[in-house]
Amino acid sequence: MAAAAGEPRSQQPGGPGRLLLALAAALALVAVVAVSTGLRTRPAHRVLTMRLAPDRPTALDPAGCPVDIACQLRAEVPAALTRAVQQAFPRARLQWRSSTESGPGQVWRITAQFLLNGDQDSLLVNAECQPDASQRIARRESSSAQQRSDLAGNQVSELAVHEVVAPGAPGCSSDLIVSAVGDGAGYDAGLQRLSADPAVQVRS
Amino acid sequence: MTDPEADWPVLRVSDSDIDTPEDPDRSRAVPLRPAEPERPPRRLPAVPLRWCVAAAVTALLAAGAAVGFAGYRARTITSVQRVAPPPGGVDAAGCPPGDTCTALSGAYSGLAQALTAHLPGSVVLFSSELVDSGATAWARRLRIVQLPESGVRVLAVVQCRPDQPPVQPSRRNLAGSGPAVAVLVRPVGTGCALSLVADVPAGQPVPAAALLAIAADPDTAIG
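Output (structure tokens, whole complex):
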């Protein structure tokens, strides 16, 4: 009894000490539970997709120049284009040629028109590149015809239009149109061959 | 009154049968039940108060860090993807992507009528019309004619792209004579524009009046 009474008061785990120890134990338990929960939890991922409004592309005006870019129109087309057309259609005769460019090598549109067979059938080559366009143009084909009914009731084609849009470099393509009296079937092979020729593109 | 213990047998014990304190071996052989010793009360080990404070503060910090760690692990990561549609995409025929377009002869369009009216005697070299079945209302009509006497050729294109800014009117090389390439561009209607390009041979006058009349003709408008 004499030794216990001689201990200093700070050595006694009295009321405040016990309370602090209990608090520390509770907090330690909370820490253990929190760490355990954190280790078993993975961050949730949420992806928000924002579709931006389409940028208004700078298109070519009807003359073939970009709307906001000054360019010149020339009455000439590349010689390679003429050669490619004459290889596909040996009797082709050049009637119209024009191209637009805003600087050396910066060509936007090439337009050439050929007579294929006398003065009746015609081929139009219109190749162009859209400014700021990065998407590759899809190939497509279409045909239409003006028809009449003969005495037997058959539909007879009077004027046929065959069109092939061939993709070039991204944003570039070439529109090939054959307008022919009759059904124009004799030009299909040449049209397909010409559409595969990179010479009909502004950029391929 | 009789004594009830009077009839009990009497056990005679000699002095040699009695354990004595002077015989320690015999006291261990027949132990006596000792009295329960008085145990001291259980007491916690003494902990200084400052250690208790330090433990509480440390536990508090650890709990805070652990709760923060749990919150960090349970966070939601939000990623924002900005998807921009590819710009452009209209093909060389003037057909927007995804639409079904067909080329027709365009022989009976208003553009053909205007060219025939203001360039009498002209020969049609080519004529086409883009028909877009989609909802974009894009269109293009193209016609090439030639004046047999002068050899002047005119390329006329009218196109509609409602999503585009208005085309600024312009004219170039309308005065004088060939060789020249005369260009006349003007808007016609909403979102539409007309261009006239004349390839004028050497020595031939530019048909400026006819070009201006065609450009002012309301028949050239689409729709």
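Chain A has a mean pLDDT of 86.
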